[in-house]
Amino acid sequence: VQLQASGGGLVQAGGSLRLSCAASGTSLFSVTAMGWFRQAPGKQRELAALITTTTDGLTDYADSVKGRFTISRDSASNTVYLQMNNLKPEDTAVYYCHARSSRPFWGQGTLVTVSS
To answer: Helix, strand, or coil here: 101?
Structure first.
């Protein structure tokens, strides 16, 4: 599974950004969930948001982003999106696209910087 992420950048606090991640490869059938993890400087990588590939598209969010971030998917294009609203300086991190399968797959990181 290959993951191609896009989006990110510099935004002022209170602003919005959208991240996209497109999955491709011959093992897509084995992916059970996709989403985004993030890693701030000096901190461990943590889950930001996840959505299952099942019909019901169950979602999971870090408590710190609930009500501000929304994850969605386009099954036809195997793409997930992370809409990030009301961004805060503490959201500054490298965001990594993730696909859950028999093993985890990771895309390249994309930097999100929120200025105060």
So the answer is: coil
